[in-house]
Amino acid sequence: MNKEERFITGLRSLFDKLVWLNKIKMEDALKGYTPSEIHCIEYIGRNADANVTRLAESFFMTNGAISKIAKKLIKKGTIISYRKPDNKKEIYFCLTPQGNELFKVHETLHDEFYERDKAVFGQVTGEEFDGMLNLIEKYNKHLDAEIKKQSVNNKE
Predict the structure, then answer these.
(1) What is the rounded CA–CA span in Å between residue 36 and residue 101?
(2) Rounded to an integer, what distance in angstroms lies between the CA atom of residue 58 and that of residue 96?
(3) Least buried of 7, 12, 96, 109, by fewest C-beta within 10 Å?
(4) What contacts 24+ positions apart, CB below 8 Å, involve 148-155?
């Protein structure tokens, strides 16, 4: 296996382990909500004026899929929709107090997971971090370009 294959395999293994380790606590603390719903709550909690288009772009989902999730979250009382006085067309979302509580629980869990993994990060030098972050940035840009190509090809 070459270095690129080892990198991809290692990245996938790392992600799978993180998901497995975090899953039980996440599911227990956030009962009644799907991962997609929690990620929408997280996005809305972190970004002012979140709307269907921005959520769809962020999660690589269709506007229709995000609309369904938003309707469920509105029904569950975790988000509300609103319009701006100067733009009656666009619908935006914000968290309700219940949504804010879920957002805080989710953030607390992420902090806990970060603390768990700090032992590894403490061993990484600034130069090593810079190298990894540079690779992640390059890889993300490459994947963004590939996604854009797919989008163009699918429209033709």
Answers:
(1) 17
(2) 21
(3) 12
(4) none
The total of other beta-carbon atoms located within 10 Å of residue 3's CB is 7
For domain 3-123, the CATH class is mainly alpha
Q: Read off the tokens for 60.
A: 């690589």
Q: Where are the alpha helices (DSSP H) in the chain?
A: 3-29, 35-46, 52-59, 63-75, 97-121, 126-155
Show the tokens assigned to 149: 């190509």
Per-residue pLDDT of the chain (156 residues), as tens digits, is: 899 999 999 999 999 999 999 999 999 999 999 999 999 999 999 999 999 999 999 998 999 999 999 999 999 999 999 998 888 888 999 999 999 999 999 999 999 999 999 999 999 999 999 999 999 999 999 998 998 888 777 666
